[in-house]
Amino acid sequence: MKGSNSTAPFDFVTSGHADPKHFFSQAADDIRARLLDDGAVLIRSARQCRDPGVFEAAIAALGFETRDYVGGSSPRSTIQGKVMEATRTPPDWSVILHQEMAYVKSPPEIIAFVCVEPAGKGGESVIGDMRKLERLVDPAMLQRLTERGLKLRRTLPSEDRVGLKPGVKKSWQETFSTHRQAEAEMHCRARGWDFEWNGADLILWQDCISPMRAHPLTSANIWSNQAHFWGAAAMIEWALIDGREQDARELMTAQRENPLLLEAMCFGDGEPLPEDLTLALFHAVRGLEQDIDLGEGDILLLDNLQYAHGRRAFSGNRTINVIIGNWAGDQSYAVQG
């Protein structure tokens, strides 16, 4: 394992267990307790979980309540049931550390990845302990973000125009799993999200959140947002680090000539975050990166509040399936008092 943090997630090994559902049922208490304490758990050699149905049954056996991905920002498709592909972000892109859907009021509380096929070269999973980030952030910056709140503005083109958009390419049809504008609007209203149509493109304002969030079981306040991820400054820095110079040029042009074409992390009143603040957060989060190699059938289980995740660029094939979910309201592991 590589990275700036040498502490590995706690390992469980399933080799020799013919019935994955039985193994996960029997190990559920230990795995959940370790996940809550450590924030990250590796489950090695669960090769039968490469099958989406077996993977979903195994995660259900741990007692987690699975969720859908409506409103999520990553380009991905459902494979079966609640099992999704990890992302369709191009292989020559890295994926910077982030907590899943941390731009909404109620993001998933856990996320599970299973390696179906590791990359030919590169493609390491990246995790980062977000419990450490508060100590790396200027207290005055944190107070400013807390007082003003954070809100993500997203630009979602129609699917016939999504290829024209610099940065993360995701249509409103994919975001809301519908081709009907009225149904997309219904999803927005049901979640309290503001929106407007700019021709065939949807401008979406997601929830106003605090930069810190209380853990549902421990009540610990943990940094949880994507202020370091969205906005032209972060996207350009990300592209330059990856060596994606054409992407960087396209983003710079859009930032200069048509900023509404790009996502922006804003204060709660809609004012975009200053570039220097965004870049300070971007590099603070990068300092938490920790690489983990996943082999066939390995499962990486994360508490989505305590740990962020990402990916290195790769070549060849790489198939990772993912499930998001909640602790399912089980308070037996909650810290009391």
TrEMBL record:
Location of the TauD/TfdA-like domain: 23-321
InterPro entries, A to Z: AlphaKG_dependent_hydroxylases, TauD-like_sf, TauD/TfdA-like
Entry keywords, A to Z: Dioxygenase, Oxidoreductase
Cofactor section: Fe(2+)
GO molecular function: dioxygenase activity
Presence of the UniProt keyword Ligase in the record: no
A Pfam entry, by short name: TauD
Name recorded for this polypeptide: TauD/TfdA family dioxygenase
Organism: Pseudomonas tensinigenes
